Amino acid sequence: MAVSLSDLSPNPAASIGLGRGGGSTAESGLPDFSSESYKDAYSRINAIVIEGEQEAHDNYLSLATLLPDQADELARLARMEMKHKKGFTACAANLGVEADMPFAHAFFAPLRDNFQQGLAEGKLVTCLLIQSILIEAFAIAAYHIYIPVADPFARKITEGVVQDEYTHLNYGQEWLKANLEASRQELEEANRANLPHVRRMLEQVADDAGVLQMDKEDLMADFMTSYQEVLIEIGFTSREIARMATAALLG
Amino acid sequence: MFGLIGHSTSLDAARSKAASLGYPEYAEGDFEMWCVAPPQLVETVTVTSPTGKVIEGAYIDSVFVPEMLSRFKTAKRKVLSAMELAQKNDIAITALGGFTSIIFENLNLLKEQQIRNTKLEWERFTTGNTHTAWVIAQQVVHNAPRLGIDLARAKVAVVGASGDIGSAVCRWLQRQGVGELLLVARRPQPLLDLQAELGSGRVLELNDALAEADVVVWVASLPEGLSIDADLLPRPCLMIDGGYPKNLDSRFAGDGVHVIKGGIVEFWQDLGWQMMEVADMANPRRQLFACFAEAMLLEFEGIHTNFSWGRNNITLANMDRIGEASLRHGFRALALDSVQPGTLVTA
Q: CA-based Rg of chain B, rounded to a whole angstrom?
């Protein structure tokens, strides 16, 4: 095939996601943060973030019951999540938005239920995969894609949070890496059971995210990148990861 | 360690390559799946120079396919993510191959240094254009005489003359001494600037240049819709197909018109990799893009810097330097006798 170089001329108007949903201010290309459609979408996205940080806090404290010798470190991670929650709550207040918490609570139900079931059965690997890999990678992807289109107040807060979340991703990664051979089967099973929920969560939030100018393909791609990176660190080959990722997430 | 960032020539080719590399899920994946898939470090390779020096390298597939060119955000993400992966693997010098350097340049990705939690270090990357330009210049100088073309009197058309590679080839050929340079490009002003810099050369429309050219160096891609009358060309005529993708052979070769794949080198021994098969090389164990070879050369020479970077920064001194390294480490430019004879196509 032949493609002319002129096919590649940058044309911002054709870029995906720009000027969609809540409308954008002409000069900056950023959404109109004060529009009703923006605030409506934000009430759900922001609630997901607040709920996610709260559940992360609770989950790290729960993990401490399975890893009592690491209780201090897990308590430290949990405290960071509460700090994030406060930051994101302030973001909503700054825009005059009330977070739709019942929506967010339902949004996390499948992963929360699976985490709780794993916890009750003492399945540490399952719990680590859900919280420390899947939810953290999901959060990191969302924050990355959000930062360039966030309002200035939320942008500053989110930039601080995303650095912390890498610490959390790293926590699960290091434990699973050190225990890979014993964990492999449970990890693959838990992945198969939970990754489809992540996909559904992404799809469920795509329209609202679009109003915030967060593109669904970007979200998915960023999640896939973090997910692949952490599994490679744990010790899976890229072929195994392709199988684990695509079968459940994209198949 | 050196790195190469490449991609397949089409989604179909990418799918069958994925199947053969042991990625059946990718092989069955649809276009949307390929758009979100992260880059893959597909293989590592050990390369030995005739000097005895041994280097290690990695091939990163950007999981980009040309069908994504019209999706700017996707194309941009693919290139930056592949660069991020190279840097995270601590690869000292990585060449941007195929469309990836074109995307980098045209979508102005210099503005996009931060990708996720990684700040890209530009000095780890090279477009490889200095070596490509040097190789194309060699292909002109060594093959024209074999067709009975006397370069000292020949007219050499450079199509895409004002681009990074094109302008470097012009400067090199002018120093070498050719009859006349015929300068062709889409936009007039950069051409006039080049002409002023060279102090010679004639600016022409494409068809006017082809009608006079004994040698044609293509460093722009030939648009599908563009019709060119092959009968215009003087005989014999040497064409160096230095654009990407390479598609001149089937359109021009034959009846006194000789086409060489431009900017391709052959290594002195087999490379233990399979990735050049995706690039339709005649001898994929030995042949590779000169831009990729530049990353190898910089690693062999311990030059860990973005040797080729930005637009129109290629100097004759750097071309000479990379050319000497190229010869020392066992590369030679693809020549007329190592290509399949083309078939005459009457368009």
A: 20
